[in-house]
Amino acid sequence: MLSGKRLDQALAIMCPEHSRSRITSWIKEGYVTLNNLSCDQPKSKVASGDIVHISAYISDAISMEPEAISLNIVYEDEAVFVINKQAGMVVHPAAGNPSGTMLNALLHHCPELIKIPRAGIVHRLDKGTTGLMMVAKTLQAHTSLVSQLQARSVKRVYNAIVSGQPKRQMGTIDAPIGRDPYNRIKMAVLHSPEAKVAITHYKVLEPLTSAALVECKLETGRTHQIRVHMAYLGHPLIADETYTGRQRYPGGLDKLQRSSIDEFARPALHAKQLTFVHPSTNASMTFESEYPDDFSKLLTSLKFNTLES
Predict the structure, then answer these.
(1) Are 134 and 48 part of one and the same domain?
(2) SS3 100
(3) How many Å is the Cα radius of gyration of the chain?
């Protein structure tokens, strides 16, 4: 029964292919009438027999051009993609990267994505991060995946190589993150109203030379979250120049290990596992990604130190 519900709630139930925020925007912008009268209040109540009309239309959500860029698609059906992102690929176009992004590649692979917000991209990985991402192919799938992310039910597991060895073998970092007030290209742990809740669970998988292989599970998904949280813990990601400060290398590395870090040249982070509920079948789906070659090479290098032999 819809009688007695708010207008935005009723429309969200009647039009599940559209997100609640999109419906609320339509109401506020005057695209919805209630009993032939303009109604710009999402809180307005509806009653049995009311006539609601939506005159909004979905324009092209983006104006970016498709580009023939290779994508490593590990799964695809009528509703979703799962993509294994390569290092160096930017997810969204921006001022510094107006083209050559995953979004441009997706539009070439599936032109219908022009009608989906952000071409179906519902979360992102940093330019230097490799691994698994999910992408929606329909509005219904987009709404479902966004809702799962907001409900924190999507399971995202990352592997990182960090500087030093954490004293505790596992733990939870519950520290809010916001834009660094002294350097706007960075994020930071902040205790201010602008900061957002950020929670990362970590576990040491393997000790290395002056480093460690660590598993990180995201409960939230803030920009640079793992990079910021591990640096806050005192163990920044290897080769993460943004958050390592002046110390490029951990102490105790031999020449070959230092060279391997120079060759890696990106934050040592890989999105290894992704679990979500399929928007159409409601089946739980889990995907895993092997380490890329450069990550495996760095990991192997940090296992063997000639200075210790």
Answers:
(1) no
(2) coil
(3) 23
* E strand or H helix that includes residue 178: strand 177-179
Is residue 126 among the annotated active site residues?
yes
Mean pLDDT confidence for 9-32 = 80
Do β-strands 199-208 and 170-174 pair in parallel, antiparallel, or remain unpaired? antiparallel
- The answer on 178 and 300 residing in a single domain is yes
Stated pTM of the model = 0.79
Find the catalytic residue in 40, 50, 126, 262. 126
Q: Which amino acid is at 162?
A: V
Q: List the domain range (segments joined by +) for residue 140.
A: 60-151
> Is residue 59 pLDDT above 70, yes or no?
no
- For 157-216, what is each residue's pLDDT tens digit? 999 999 999 999 999 999 999 989 888 789 999 998 889 999 999 999 999 989 999 999
Closest CA to 168 of 235, 121, 263: 235
CATH of the domain at 23: 3.10.290.10
Residues 212-260 pLDDT 10s: 999 999 999 999 999 999 999 999 999 999 998 766 778 888 888 888 8
Rounded-to-integer distance, Cα 79 and Cα 81, Å = 7
- Taking Cα atoms as reference points, which of 7, 132, 111 lies closest to residue 60? 111
